[in-house]
Amino acid sequence: MKAVTWQGKRNVSVDNVPDPTIQEPTDAIIRVTSTAICGSDLHLYEILGPYMAKGDILGHEPMGIVEEVGSAVTNLKVGDRVVIPFNISCGHCFMCTHGLQSQCETTQVHEHGSGAALLGYSSLYGSVPGGQAEYLRVPFADYGPVKVGSELPDERYLYLSDILPTAWQGVQYADVPKDGVLAVYGLGPVGQFVARIGRYLGHRVIAVEPVAERREMAERHGIETMDFTDGTVEELRSMTDGRGPDAVVDAVGMEAHGSPGGYFAQQAVGVLPDKLAQKVMETAGRDRVSVLHSAVDAVRRGGTLSLSGVYGGTATPMPLLTMFDKQIQVRMGQCNVRRWTDELLPIVEEPSDPLGVMDLMTHEVPIDDAPAAYENFQKKTDGTIKVVLKPQGLSV
């Protein structure tokens, strides 16, 4: 089968690799009809190379048709149409039954002290082959896959695999009060959905984003937007009675613009041998924190900061004095996808499409075009906001 594989920093290719097979009785094999490139995939493309091996299959936002099921799978049958969550969870351990599927005790990667294994996301999360491929092996198939209808197009459902529940969790964690103001930093795919969910739940939403076409997309959904500048914090305060927003969601993460020190640290680690680079990242790794620090400054006293963007630096500096003085609550974490999918499924199926899931994809391309799509997404060129790959061809 064809699959998108990691070959080195800023280097992915489409290769022929062996088809996946049933390895455990709880597995299923799906034929992937749509699979997206996630902003988190760009961290593998740019920063997290020390945890990758040449030939690793990328991708953690797939959906498709069940082709085969293991002997212990009873909830799925051949021909079912399913969305596959990016985190691999068993559904019966303590963490799963407490709505913390991203911490699944059955699939935790103890070697690296990490939470639940993830599809296509480095040795940090289990080196599980990903979903940017024609076929995918799905572990714990009785629990993870979300069965969906056959009438609506893939893009109605695809984002349930990751970015839509990630955004939903980010807003839930933000705990915006009734009639409150939510600020969103970053209008990539997750930030777009965070902003729309905020509006859907009745909040005033102000989004901060330096890329004009991303602001324009958000404005189509009634979102107030502004550029990210040195005056962003004061502007947010001026729009909120001088206090700042009640809650802020950081939907950017470790590769924020405007952080030269963090950028230099990340690039320096990137030229080290993998084992040494891993050690440095695990003991002295730093992120680009311009957005994070701006969010801390902007949120009102007693407000909430919710982190949906991924951070990986163990030595990233945090303004704890300010956070303590302002009495800020902080919530964060990998999304617990299956906690939210039952709540979100009827919303994405509403005829009015209240979250605008059909207004996110900017590029739909065959899997062979994945290398160029990665480059455009990383460089934010060609108006790229969300890329959907079609492993079976554009007619699917």
UniProtKB/TrEMBL annotation:
InterPro entries linked to this entry: ADH-like_C, ADH-like_N, ADH_Zn_CS, GroES-like_sf, NAD(P)-bd_dom_sf
Entries under SUPFAM superfamilies matching the protein: GroES-like (SSF50129), NAD(P)-binding Rossmann-fold domains (SSF51735)
Keywords associated with the record: Metal-binding, Oxidoreductase, Zinc
Alcohol dehydrogenase-like C-terminal domain boundaries: 189-254
UniProt GO MF annotations: oxidoreductase activity; zinc ion binding
Cofactor: Zn(2+)
PROSITE patterns listed in its UniProt record: ADH_ZINC
Record CDD domains: FDH_like_1
Entry protein name: Glutathione-dependent formaldehyde dehydrogenase
Alcohol dehydrogenase-like N-terminal domain sequence ranges: 25-142
Pfam families from the UniProt entry: ADH_N, ADH_zinc_N
Keyword Protease in annotation: no
Native organism: Arthrobacter echini
UniProt keyword Oxidoreductase, yes or no: yes
UniProt similarity note: Belongs to the zinc-containing alcohol dehydrogenase family.
